[in-house]
Amino acid sequence: xxxxxxxxxxxxxxxxxxxxxxxxxxxxxxxxxxxxxxxxxxxxxxxxxxxxxxxxxxxxxxxxxxxxxxxxxxxxxxxxxxxxxxxxxxxxxxxxxxxxxxxxxxxxxxxxxxxxxxxxxx
Length: 122
Hints:
- By secondary structure, this protein is α/β, with parallel strands linked by helices.
- The protein has one domain: Glutaredoxin (3-Layer(aba) Sandwich), CATH 3.40.30.10.
- The chain contains 4 helices and 5 strands; from the N terminus they run βαβαβαββα.
- The protein has helices at 13-25, 40-55, 70-75, 101-121, and strands spanning 7-10, 29-35, 60-65, 83-88, 91-97.
- Strands 1-3-2-4-5 form a 5-stranded mixed sheet, with helices on both faces.
């Protein structure tokens, strides 16, 4: 398992399921980056995702190459890259399709803040 503050690349369905289940069990916000090696906008978003991961270590960031894990991409109805899915406890909170840096940052920070407020009140 990668350290907190890093983007975790899932290269097998098993590692994907394992990381997803860990996040669900920990009741953490999970941000999934559905990407492709041949996709220029995906490459543009990669360092932005890494910065968010460093800034928000309580959030789990997962990266899935749609060509490597086609079944996962199909299961999550990914039709364009990049697609970012924000999920918590098995529920999709938000989907962002495209290299929308500002929208992604705002969404992650919003849901991470809601999570921190909920945890603080627990």
